[in-house]
Amino acid sequence: MADPKSCDVPPTSLLQPEERNYSQVIFSRMEKSFEPGTDIVCYFTFTAEFQPARKDWVGIFKVSWKTTREYYTWISAECDEQGLEKHVTFKAYYLPKDNDDYYQFCYVDHKGEVRGVSIPFQFCPKVQEEDEENILLVTTEEEAQRMKEKLSELEETSIQLQEKLEAAEKKNCVLQQEGTRVASQQKNLIESLQAQHLGWSNKTDGLKQQNQEARRQLEEERCRNRSLQLKLASEEEEQVRLKDETRSLQLEQNQIKEENMNLHQRIKDMESALKESSEEAKNHAEEVQVLKGELRDAKEGHQLLQEQLQDTQLEKKKDQDSIDLLTKEVTDLGQILERKEKALETAGKQFTRLQREQATLLQEMQDLNCTVELREDEISDMQKQRLRDGEEIEKLSRLLYQKSTSTPGGQGLYFPNPYEGESLVSLGNEPQSREAPGGSSGVRQEQMKCPECGWEFQDSQVYLDHVMCHGLDSME
Questions:
Q1: Could you say which of 10, 36, 315, 453 would form a disulfide bridge with 98 (CB–CB 3.0 to 4.6 Å)?
Q2: Which candidate, 190, 197, 204, places its Cα nearest to that of 143?
Q3: What is the average pLDDT value for the chain, to the nearest integer?
Q4: Which has more confidence, 304 or 418?
Q5: Rounded Cα–Cα distance for residues 45 and 31 (Å)
Q6: CA separation for the pair 350, 356 (Å, rounded)
Q7: How many CA atoms lie within 13 A of 335 on its CB side?
Q8: What distance in Å separates the CA atoms of residue 219 and residue 204, rounded to the nearest whole number?
Q9: pTM attached to this predicted model
């Protein structure tokens, strides 16, 4: 057992946890209340999608907590038990005393994120059965508590719808500002609902102390609500999976620049995946319609409770007016959600069209870049080759000039740059061609003899190359 006053604090987070992760650790063998002053054992089981770590811990939190730093006490979740079900024991010394507050177990991982939440429970002695008068009071309080629970369900439904709207708005930057404004309005509405709910709860505190049985029934309703929350969390996980698929498609768009051979096939895959995403978005829209039907059923039940409260207690007439106002605000919220759904559908079509235009532009830019790079490479190669040719010609000219000045009888040896046009090459002992008598039509070729080795040549170009080789050999 870890004492918060003497041991290191567990890993926590200041951020409000995401409810979609609450189903990764399941608490079992839960009691509605525990006897004060006794040790309690907490049983839990890991699901397949969760991998425990060494610094994970289990804490006791007061209901209505916001962050993992608001724990009452905690204990490390590390244990050596074999099998699926694990358990930890909280010592009585660190547990809350007898009071009317509700608590719950929370499993927190090494990053400070909540992975599992239990149903609420109390620390109170066993309640004796009440007499018939109290039973009559229980019936009236039960109706009031059910009304309170219906209001809580409406609040949770509003929160779930808000999260779905925010997730859809992140996919489209054009609607981001409008989504922020709607989220702010919904947050203010929820805060006002919570304030009204708190004021109504303060008025019913006296009746809570007289009726423990009604609280047990309320806890059972909350358990059922937790199961509904788990279902909604699974739907949110599915929506997150869709977001991940969309991100993977965007990564594939970036890789198109380097994969020219598979470009067209990948674009087709992206279009098919986007179609599937739109179909799944339509399925989510149908789910929203189902939730709206549940809201209508809740309104009808709320109206029935309203009539019963008017018959039983005239003092709560003002509270009933507040509930009517709440119903109207929830109806307005449903209308706002319908408008946002239509806007999201239009934004999805625009997003698909923009993606296609982006793919076309990327292909055109890539083709232009490839053409420019090829032309730049060709120009660079031609410039480098020109520089190399010039350097080689200059080097050979110097070598021939040195050879002609160092060889006896070789004055007058001259070898020009062959790339500068026609030029005359003269050697001191080289025989010249003579014109045939009568004009330039008959030219007689003389044999040319190498001054180094004595070889004879008839082709002047071959002769010049041979003499150049002798010059290079002498320089080496």
A1: 36
A2: 204
A3: 77
A4: 304
A5: 16
A6: 10
A7: 6
A8: 16
A9: 0.30
* pLDDT at residue number 225: 81
What confidence category does residue 275 fall into, taking pLDDT thresholds of 50, 70 and 90? Answer: confident
- For residue 321, name the pLDDT band (cuts at 50, 70, 90): confident
Kindly report each contact of residues 244-250 with a partner whose C-beta sits within 8 Å and lies 24 or more positions away, as own/partner.
245/273, 245/277, 246/171, 246/277, 249/273, 249/274
Q: Which residues does 130 contact at the CB level (< 8 Å), separation at least 6? A: 138, 211, 212, 213
Amino acid letter, 223: C
Measure the CA–CA gap between 463 and 450, rounded to whole angstroms: 8
Could you read off the pLDDT of 193-237 as tens digits, one per residue? 777 777 677 776 767 777 777 678 878 888 888 888 888 888 888
The secondary structure of the chain, three-state, reads: CECCCCCCCCCCCCCCCCHHHCECEEEECCCCEECCCCCEEEEEEECCCCCCCCCCEEEEEECCCCCHHHEEEEEECCCCCCCCEEEEEECHHHCCCCCCCCEEEEEECCCCCEEEECCCEEECCCCCCCCHHHHHHHHHHHHHHHHHHHHHHHHHHHHHHHHHHHHHHCCCHHHHHHHHHHHHHHHHHHHHHHHHHHHHHHHCHHHHHHCHHHHHHHHHHHHHHHHHHHHHHHHHHHHHHHHHHHHHHHHHHHHHHHCCCCHHHHHHHHHHHHHHHHHHHHHHHHHHHHHHHHHHHHHHHHHHHHHHHHHHCHHHHHHHHHHHHHHHHHHHHHHHHHHHHHHHHHHHHHHHHHHHHHHHHHHHHHHHHHHHHHHHHHHHHHHHHHHHHHHHHHHHHHHHHHHHHHCCCCCCCCCCCHHHCCCCCCCCCCCCCEECCCCCCCEECCCEECCCCCCEECCHHHHHHHHHHHHHHHHC
CA dihedral 393, 399, 402, 407 (to 10 degrees): -120
Question: Please, which residues bridge with residue 331 across strands?
Answer: none
Section 146-168 average pLDDT: 71
How high is the pLDDT of residue 20? 83
| Res 146 pLDDT > 80 | no
Nearest to 156 by CA among 224, 70, 58: 224
CATH 3.60.15.10 correct for 19-123: no
